[in-house]
Amino acid sequence: MASARSTQTTLAFAAVTTLFFAWGFITSLIDPLVAAVKGIFTLTDLQAQLATFAFFIAYGVASFPAAALLARLKSIPTILTALCMMIAGCLVMLVAANLAIFTLVLLGLFILASGITVLQVAANPLAAALGDPSRSHLRLTLSQTFNSLGTFIGPLLGAHLFLKGVEVKPGTVITEAVRADALAGIDSAYFWICGLIAALAVFFFLSRRVVTQAAPPSSLEARGSLGALIADAFSSKWALFGGLAIFLYVGAEVSIGSQMALFLNSNAVWGQSDAPFGVPLLGLAMGSDGIAGVSLQEAGKAVAFYWGGAMVGRAIGSALLARFNAARLLTVFTAIAAAMCLYVFVVGGVTAGFVALAIGLFNSIMFPVIFTLTLERSSASEEATSGLLCTAIIGGAFVPLLVGAVSGSHGYAFALIVPALCYGVLCFFAVSAGRAKPVRGGTGVSLH
Fold first, then answer.
1. Cβ(265)–Cβ(303) under 8 Å?
2. How far apart are CA 119 and CA 129, in angstroms?
3. Which of 40, 48, 57, 95 is the most exposed place for a label (fewest CB within 10 A)?
4. How far is the C-alpha of 339 from the C-alpha of 138, rounded, in Å?
């Protein structure tokens, strides 16, 4: 009986983990998309970051309604609703690409991200709950590893489809043919994503009984109205502190990723250098076009290694979290990420490109560990705390706008001072969490 229960829980966890892969893949397409729309619609850095803003602002709008929906409908219907919303967002993106209207691109991204928000509110606590509570850090980090696999593949495909022939350096002009190819690439990408999500919805519908039977009853328990959820979340100082941490973490990670292609393509970094092509795997993935320096498309493909670092880091982090204190490990990772941003800011040059890509390795465990440390210490309900934490992902809308404004006036390397400050605050959160006692689930100490 115990063995059957364990197998059922494992299958349920695997089904939920497929969702993490899907939203990671879709979210990481924003990075090459920002570079593409900058060229296609002749935008400034700040204007191009409106694509990031439209996507991540959805977390601020949809998270608490999603938590209320989860409390009313339970996990499976909420997840299926989210997937339908994502399909609708893809359809708007198809129209936007065919009509070449930037405002429609923004609308499509907002609808798509609203669906992903609902998905995260339901799936994050569910993944943490499917198994031994003392291993919630490890389990959510493992799911995030598959999320990172999606974020690794996304920029490679997106750069290939969106950025062929696109250049945004001063003095360059995009021809109508290049513009048409880029829009066709956007159309093609979101057409296939629409099909992928539809297939995923069917798969999850068929898996619904396995997940429902494996999930602890408390993880599906209704907690009240939308107003009650908001009041509950704001009553806990740890829910608020965790919300700030998620805001800054997502803001830092997204701002670095969305500017990475433009940063690497700049003449001050790799724009006039062939050094990256001599690095195994990186050079192969970038695929030199035979022209000296790194083009925007080649730089866009290199962004995959920023997210790939997070994938490798989460795999390593899953093992480390099984042996070491989660809060202390978070302290180390945030301190290193801050130091790397400062290196890019102070030193710059070709080496700064490699250092910037490597920041992803230390971003790896931040979201799942901040999430679970906060859930353990929050006096609010899991639904309310999860809703607030997912609302805080809105940091991915606002911090990139600030970074875009700074890079537009002072350069891409200078702009990394903003995420450096974000990581500094996250280091303080980690130290504070290590000193505070958990009030629910998990050990908060180690995951033996």
1. no
2. 16
3. 95
4. 26
